[in-house]
Records
---
Amino acid sequence: MKRTIFITGTGTGAGKTVLTALLAGFFRGHGLRVAALKPVCSGGREDARILRAALGGALTLDEINPWHYRAALAPLLAARKERKQARLAPVLAQLRKVGRDFDVVLIEGAGGLLSPLGAGFNSRDLIAALDAAPVVVAPNQLGVVNHILLTLEALPAAFRARSRVVLMTPPRPDSATASNARLLKELSIQPVCRLPWLGADFSPGAVLREPRVWRSLTALVAD
């Protein structure tokens, strides 16, 4: 059965692309056919290029990222500057078309869960329409517990129950980094996975050779 996982986050720069690239390598390491897609992006296509490299070139850049805009703004606003617009139906059709021949389809959103991706839709709408399992990525720092709770609360109840949370360790941990996962567990938010700081120019292949990363990803995708 095809597995569709949607990687969203508490905001821009949370670590969605890093996690998506790692998951692509993880599933490929298990012999599965994997698609990693970022249908809409703005402010450059570097994220899509990282995903293409993680797939070993299995998909073209335009298959991974069909809607892209130059301005570093929410995609809805960036598209308006170019007199363009992404719409829900074509985006869903493209995702289904590209993903149909794969065992696992990873879809990365842009910005946070409710950031507008196009005319009248956001990542939450894609999650619901694709019946995808949500993964919420967040920087493991002071204040993030509130951001995670708000993001989970914004998901439909059925998808909230299937969601996973990933805390990404920042380069400089703060006073809350060590305790956030424990607090989330006390609040009945689980499973919560933690990933270490991987460096600014990380290599997914090298990182996946680290046992603690492999164990974290194994726990993340366990049914």
Note: The mean pLDDT is 95.
---
Amino acid sequence: MRETLFITATDTGVGKTVLTCLLVEFLRHRGCRVAAFKPVCSGDRADGRAIQAALGGALTLDEINPWYFRAPVTPSLAARRENKSVTLRRVLAHVRALEKPFTVTLVEGAGGLLSPLGVDFDSRDLLAAFGATPLIVAVNRLGAINHVRLTCEGLPRKLRQRCRIILMTPSKPDAATSTNAALLRSRAPRNSVFQLPWFGSDFDPASAASLPGTVRTLRALTASLDGSI
């Protein structure tokens, strides 16, 4: 049974690619055939390269990230500056064509949930088209509660109850870091809020994914999504 997970976030630079790479390493170690994509990005391709390394050569960089635009602004604007465009239909077709040999597909958006990716579509439109389980990443600090709840409210109604929230510990925790998860759990469906630690500035997905605490979190996260993973 195929499972599609869509990694989105409350903002840019909050840890989407960290989570994507951790999931790739964890699932591969469990024997899953996993594909991961960041179809659209702008600024640089560091995220795509990190995903490629985690996949161990299962997909090329251009397969993982077929639409790359140089300007460090939202992808739809960066594309227009290069007189290029990307459509929802083309992104769907690209991923669908390449995911066939795999049992688990991870698709990572760019920026937050409603950041425009291309011609009249954003991450919300893309995850709805896939019918994917949404994974919402947020930095675990003051303000996260509001940002997470707003992002959840922005999800398509039929996918909202399936969403999972992943709080990423910042390098410098604040007073809210130790309380956010409990507060979110009191307002979210059962087993839908998870926490990951700060992995350091020289993050290595393989090492991080083997840490006992991380393994427990990723096992709980994937077990709650589908028993076949």
Note: The beta strands are 3-9, 34-37, 40-42, 67-69, 104-108, 116-118, 121-122, 133-139, 164-168, 193-196.
